[in-house]
Amino acid sequence: METRERIQTTYDPAEWESLETLLFCLGVNWSYRGFGLALEAALMLKRDNSLKSCMKIIYIDVAKKNRTGGENVRRDITTLARVIWRDGNRERLEEMAGKRSDRPPTCREFIGILADLNL
Fold it and tell me: What pTM was estimated for this model as a whole?
């Protein structure tokens, strides 16, 4: 089963669709490896906010489900956040974060921003 279909069937369809649409509005799509990884990580964190203190657990869990390594998950999500920052809807991302910044969000910050939204 492809990542997109697996994520769709694992999480609440309304949350999944809202978060997917939000990422599209930020200027990224499924052509980025980090897209599905960020989507899944944010949905996991949204489901269990206690994981925020140990993001490594999320990276490892998402990595296992996607047959890759935790460091690859972190790197791909970081790349996605940087692409949004550089070429996407940076203003919307800053609005979602609730602050202006002079640098792109880290992987941890980006997942937290996505998970904290009330979709």
Answer: 0.89
CA distance linking residue 26 with residue 108, whole number of Å: 17
Contacts of 24 (CB under 8 A, 6+ apart): none
Chain CA centroid to CA 93, Å: 12
10 Å CB burial of residue 76 (0-12, 13-18, 19+) is buried
Amino acid at 45: L
Instruction: For 42-101, write each residue's pLDDT tens digit.
Output: 999 988 877 777 888 999 999 999 999 999 999 999 999 999 999 999 999 999 999 999
